[in-house]
Amino acid sequence: MKIATFNIQNLFHRHTELLQETHSKNSGDWVAQLDSLLRKQPKSQGDNERIHELTFLLGFDSTQNLPYALLKNKGGDLFFKKQGILSETKASFLSDWEGWVKLMNRPLHEKAIFSKAYVIAETDPDILVLQEVEDRSSLLEFNAEFLPLLKISPYEEVMVFETNDQRGLGMGVMLKNGFRMCSLRSYLNERDSEGFNLFDLDCQEYEIAMPRGERVHILSNHFSSDSRQRKEQAEWVAARYREMLTEGKKNILICGALNDVSYSDCLSPLLRETELSDIARHDRFKTDTDKGRGGGYFRLGAYRMGVNIKQKDYLLLPPGLSEKVRSAGMNRKGTWLNRKPNWSLYPSIASKHHAASEHPLVWARIHV
User: Fold this and answer.
1) Cβ atoms of residues 27 and 43 within 8 Å
2) Neighbours of 275 (CB within 10 A)
3) What angle do CA 108, 109, 110 make, to 5 degrees?
């Protein structure tokens, strides 16, 4: 079994909020602080004043960012919905309308789409777990039209499941070589300690049948950018993992964009309070090292010696599966950083607009 996890960051279109340049190194802290204050109950006068300051700093109160309307596709017909108004007008030859709609998505560069295909084709896993996919029709088109161009067989089962994200970011699975989806369980309605949705996107549980009849259970995740919420998510996933063990399930993997470094306290419920091990720390995990001086040291928060990019993506295995790993690695040839990358990229990538994703693909081949 060869399994991979990849935060693909959309296939053809990406929400404008996710494409905007960060104008301050503090913006990430501002977002996390705003998220924490909005959840706080009750709020003091100082809290409300700080929320007002943060929304101004982040540009949330800019009227030019508010859409005048939403254009929806229902049953193959287009509907025009004005903001704040419930009525909808069907756009057809019977009820025509004129006007414009501000698009909230932007098309990705064609080279970026091919870069995503290169990353997947070079690894060619049996099970591909994806985060941040816009919709199933896009993934079907990508699977049918782009992957065959790179001389790999397309995936036989292609699934995308909606999440809590309002920008349309979903989570998906692609299967081939005799692997079949048996069941899916979504946890998007789980609540945190304050009664809000625990997961910004979701934690999804897949039961997949392998060609010889064995089953593998996968918990696919996309954790929050807010540290407090991220720790609650890690605690919940660790508890669900233990519950699955008591249910008699084996071959359990936890993967996805956990969005923090391995030494962070936020991930301690998974990385230090369970027997799960990170594939990036496995003896058989191999990948290209940084060029120049970077290849000789271990950056704090990096994947490993000589692979000095900040770790956000994980593939966690229980002891029984970790012992059966035959090979493992990551593909970062499609990953561009703001500073000049110190590793090999695909020849077609000349700027960040050509990159596959800000996340590498992490994989393992396991004898099960």
Assistant:
1) no
2) 11
3) 115
Instruction: Write down the pLDDT at residue 76.
Output: 52
Asked if the bond preceding 125 is cis, omega within 30° of 0, the reply is no
Predicted structure pTM score = 0.80
Which pair of structure tokens corresponds to residue 312? 């956000």
Identify the CA nearest to 10 among candidates 168, 219, 119: 168
The pLDDT score that the predictor gives to residue 68 is 45
Residues of the chain with pLDDT under 50: 22-23, 63-70, 83-87, 100-102
Q: 322 to each of 241, 276, 277, 356, 367, how far by Cα in Å?
A: 16, 9, 7, 29, 10
The half-sphere exposure of 59 on its side-chain side, counting CA atoms within 13 A, is 10
The position carrying tokens 């009227």 is 63
Predicted local distance difference test score (pLDDT) of residue 91: 52
Sign of the Cα pseudo-torsion (119, 140, 113, 25, in order): negative
Q: How many CA within 13 A on the CB side of residue 315?
A: 29
Q: Please report the domains of the chain, with CATH numbers, ordered by start residue.
A: 2-15+108-366 (3.60.10.10), 16-64 (no CATH), 68-101 (no CATH)
pLDDT digits 0-9 by tens, 135-192: 899 899 999 999 999 989 999 999 999 999 887 789 999 999 999 999 999 999 999 9
Number of C-beta neighbours around residue 291 at 10 A: 12
